[in-house]
Amino acid sequence: MRYCTRWDEGPATTLGMSLLRLGICQPSDWSGSAVDFVERGFNRFCRQNGAAEAKRVWVGELRIADSLFELTEQERNQIEAEREGATQQLFLTADYEAAASIPIGATLRRLEADDKLLPAAFYRVFFANLYKWMRVYDYVDAQEHAEMWMEDLDEEELQASIYRKVEMEIPSCIQKYAPRMDKKARRLLQEIKPAAPLTRQLIRQVLEMDAHGLGHEHAWPGHLTEKDVPGISDWLMDAESSRPGCLITWHENDAINACFDEDAQHMGENGPCQPNVVLPIRLERPLRKLDEEVRRVFDHAGAMLQSLASAAKVVETIRELYDEYLREHRLQPGLPVEPGASRVRNE
Amino acid sequence: MPYKKTRDYSPDEKFQEVMSALREAKPATATVRDPIMEQLKQCPDAFKVGEILGKVFDSLKYGQDEILADRLLPPAGTVIPPLA
Questions:
Q1: Using the beta-carbon criterion (under 8 Å), do A13 and B19 form an inter-chain contact?
Q2: Which candidate, A169, A129, A153, places its Cα nearest to that of A253?
Q3: C-beta separation of A40 from A29 below 8 A
Q4: CA distance B7 to B11
Q5: Is A176 helix (H, G, I), strand (E, B) or coil?
Q6: In DSSP terms, which residues pair with A102 in a beta bridge?
Q7: Which among A10, A27, A32 has the least Cβ separation from residue B30?
Q8: Which of A132, A120, A128 is nearest to A188 (CA)?
Q9: B35-72 pLDDT tens trace
């Protein structure tokens, strides 16, 4: 809960009763304030679902709020003053303050050494799960960015441009063997029995991550209808795309990274960025329906946290392999052993 | 000497207690009114003056002119006596 005003107690009592019925809040959470009651239950729920583990890699917040976007105190006071009665809607939103850097090239090479089909299958399952909880910036986004900018370049500029490298740097193991379906990629990972313990560990971790997210789809704000949230169409028209929660590069400071840096400079310039995940909770519904909705929202949040906790383990292994690769393949004397400066990786 | 028999506090009882505390809190918060706003609404002239002053302070507080705001707004926590 980011705000706690006299207006918050009303919706918090309704949500609190539902959370108590569902066992997410416990009687011992009660301290006399409904907001505090919900917050205690919500914090415990996040802890139980791996928030601390997820936090090792993902910098962001999962919150319950009555607004889809950040409001100044003045804007909030104005909205509350104009509103008739207490709000009848809350939102569970997820957003990321930074894109986690995932330099996956060295890992793909390691997987390829065990089986030529492994890298693309691994990438597909890893990407598909992350994409359920966040906007993922990878080589496809970089390709789109590069294509747009290359249109205006002449031949000479094109030769010198970083944009050409986006296409050139895509590893052949991804280009040649990319499975078209998540299901096929998952089956491949389950069937291939690699010899290397590290490869087996990576596959186990990514399958664990995938299992947590099964049955869930990305709850983009764009999925909301006017019936869910009146005025959502206008808001979406004015808002920009969500900020990416991660950046998958082949190696740090490659062409994908360069495109991301260019894109990131303009993110949020023309309006607020949409949250990565939005799940509405309609408080005016009959008790049973309300509890079902709250259960569905918290199931989604739980699956997200568990997936991101597993994903954090995968990302940490990917980073270790990348650091190892850097140490072994230092190309220039004086190049730092640790990865270079990157605004997205908090080394 | 018999032990003092204490009544077990069942989890169900605690559950019901918290549920009714939340139930009671709900109508109380739904009808909550800002007492100052209520008084001002009963006296439209004062409400108008207050509204104008509110806008002035809001523009000073949230506007760009921070130096002016520092000069006019009292320090946080200052108790201002009512106007004579």
A1: no
A2: A169
A3: yes
A4: 13
A5: helix
A6: A248
A7: A10
A8: A120
A9: 565 665 666 666 667 777 777 777 766 665 555 555 56
